[in-house]
From TrEMBL:
<keyword id="KW-0418">Kinase</keyword>
<feature type="domain" description="Pyruvate kinase barrel">
    <location>
        <begin position="4"/>
        <end position="327"/>
    </location>
</feature>
<keyword id="KW-0808">Transferase</keyword>
<keyword id="KW-0460">Magnesium</keyword>
<dbReference type="InterPro" id="IPR040442">
    <property type="entry name" value="Pyrv_kinase-like_dom_sf"/>
</dbReference>
<dbReference type="GO" id="GO:0000287">
    <property type="term" value="F:magnesium ion binding"/>
</dbReference>
<dbReference type="InterPro" id="IPR015813">
    <property type="entry name" value="Pyrv/PenolPyrv_kinase-like_dom"/>
</dbReference>
<keyword id="KW-0067">ATP-binding</keyword>
<comment type="pathway">
    <text>Carbohydrate degradation; glycolysis; pyruvate from D-glyceraldehyde 3-phosphate: step 5/5.</text>
</comment>
<feature type="domain" description="Pyruvate kinase C-terminal">
    <location>
        <begin position="357"/>
        <end position="468"/>
    </location>
</feature>
<dbReference type="Pfam" id="PF00224">
    <property type="entry name" value="PK"/>
</dbReference>
<dbReference type="GO" id="GO:0030955">
    <property type="term" value="F:potassium ion binding"/>
</dbReference>
<comment type="similarity">
    <text>Belongs to the pyruvate kinase family.</text>
</comment>
<keyword id="KW-0479">Metal-binding</keyword>
<dbReference type="InterPro" id="IPR015806">
    <property type="entry name" value="Pyrv_Knase_insert_dom_sf"/>
</dbReference>
<dbReference type="GO" id="GO:0005524">
    <property type="term" value="F:ATP binding"/>
</dbReference>
<dbReference type="GO" id="GO:0004743">
    <property type="term" value="F:pyruvate kinase activity"/>
</dbReference>
Length: 470
């Protein structure tokens, strides 16, 4: 398997939940498995977790670990229940109502959000079913919004509702989310993606829950609306990882501005030294087709040029016909794109700590002497993170740790190839062990030269930079 810097997140669903398919996904490049709690039950999730833990136990370390990401549903607004699809034609006049006795009728559509009437004004736009159906508010009373259908189509049961530009008065973490978060903690998962993050307080709320349970799970902030975008810098500093969640983001903001919005989020991630994920519609056409469109290939490449740590597949691997081919395609695109430098957002990094400056020095030294790799010895993974921030060019970063949680967290950090070793207590023995591992995994070379950063042998974070030859 070709080792690439860009990590691949695959959503697991009916197309990929069996053990053999998960094994194939891992073998061709999946680094993180995403469980979407908008669709998965706890029983579904337990089966996937069991299979992945089995894979992590038996697969060769050359593959690296599979991290597990639980994605919360978040405060969703949906339409009511319908026995059959309702055909809405452009120009129709319909009522959107919060009345409990209505589900979905020809002239009235139930919305399960009591704050709808209060929060939405005349002239506002409402989107349903991921923007396929759109409405303009004409008038409102205590229980109804009288709307004109701007874009018609068939309305099914319990469809997702977006209120672009409207501040939704719903909790950032719902009762269902809390149950799912506790499930993630119980199963010692690697990452939790918090949906519809609007401010740093949303991250702090989840962080408090995790600390109370003494959990090391890392937090992914999903940016999905204008409010989250407006607060992107404070959110990024509070989170461990930031996701450009382009599905809802493309509805809640101006779709034509989405490429620029993506770059703003990627810039913020680089500025504050946080990991970044680009998600949604990467290879959407491959849900049904064996090859992607040219535009999709270019889109993935642009995310990599922007410095994304990871790219994420959704329907392509959860319900698509070609999940393994999708992962292979992302791997191929990464290998070609990483031949070029990123756009350079890492130059704006705001971390001026000694720790980060040592990482920059190690990168410059490694590039200057044409080292084969940068090697990190770490317990917490923080040294790996600060080196990843520097974006070494065409150079692998090998991170060795004796901590299982850290080993799992390294699965999402761009440029890092993780290795688990049982002990890192004795420095000379550890370096000797590392030399043997790297020589065996680089069969084409009889000798190697690498820059070593050891962050575990002193009270300070990073105590040395060394040039090591085998």
């Amino acid at each position: 398997m070709t080792i690439t810097k860009t990590k691949i997140i695959a959503t697991i669903g009916p197309s990929t939940s069996d053990y053999q398919t998960l094994k194939k996904l891992h073998a061709c490049g999946m680094n993180v498995a995403r469980i979407n709690m908008s669709h998965a039950s706890h029983m579904d999730a337990e089966n996937v977790i069991s299979s992945i833990k089995k894979l992590n136990k038996h697969q060769s370390s050359i593959y690296g670990p599979i991290g597990i990401l639980l994605d919360t549903q978040g405060p969703e607004i949906r339409t009511g229940v319908s026995q059959s699809d309702i055909d809405l034609k452009t120009g129709d006049i319909v009522n959107l109502t919060i009345r409990d006795e209505v589900d979905v009728e020809t002239s009235s559509i139930k919305i399960n959000y009591k704050g709808l009437i209060k929060n939405v004004e005349k002239g506002s736009k409402i989107s349903i079913d991921n923007g396929l159906l759109n409405f303009k508010v004409l008038t409102k009373d205590k229980e109804n919004l009288k709307c004109k259908v701007l874009d018609g189509g068939k309305l099914g049961s319990k469809r997702h509702v977006n209120l672009p530009g409207v501040r939704v008065d719903l909790p950032s973490i719902t009762k269902k989310d809390r149950k799912d978060i506790n499930f993630a903690i119980k199963n010692n998962l690697s990452f939790i993606a918090l949906s519809f993050v609007r401010s740093a307080n949303d991250i702090h709320t989840l962080r408090t829950i995790l600390k109370r349970k003494k959990s090391s799970i890392e937090i992914i902030a999903k940016i999905e609306n204008q409010e989250g975008l407006d607060n992107i810098h404070e959110i990024t500093q509070a989170a461990d990882i930031v996701m450009v969640a382009r599905g809802d983001l493309g509805i809640e903001t101006d779709l034509a501005d989405l490429p620029n919005i993506q770059r703003r989020i990627m810039y913020a991630s680089a500025k504050w030294g946080r990991r970044s994920i680009v998600a949604t519609h990467l290879l959407e056409s491959m849900i049904k087709n064996p090859t992607p469109t040219r535009a999709e290939v270019t889109d993935v490449a642009n995310a990599i040029y922007e410095g994304a740590d990871a790219v994420m597949l959704s329907g392509e691997t959860s319900v698509g016909k070609y999940p393994v081919q999708c992962v292979k395609m992302l791997k191929k695109i990464s290998a070609k794109t990483e031949y070029f430098r990123t756009l350079g957002y890492e130059k704006f990094l705001q971390d001026n700590s000694d720790w980060q400056n040592i990482a920059i020095s190690a990168r410059d030294l490694a590039e200057g002497i044409s080292a084969d790799a940068i090697v990190i010895i770490t317990r917490s993974g923080q040294t790996a993170s600060v080196v990843s921030n520097t974006k070494p060019f065409r150079m692998p970063i090998y991170a060795f740790t004796n901590n299982q949680d850290t080993y799992s967290h390294l699965s999402i950090i761009g440029g890092i190839q993780p290795y688990f070793i049982k002990s890192i207590t004795n420095k000379s023995k550890t370096i000797s062990n590392i030399k043997s591992i790297l020589l065996s995994s680089n069969n084409s070379k009889k000798s190697l030269k690498f820059v070593l950063i050891a962050g575990v042998y002193s009270a300070s974070h990073t105590d040395s930079i060394q040039i090591i030859s085998t």
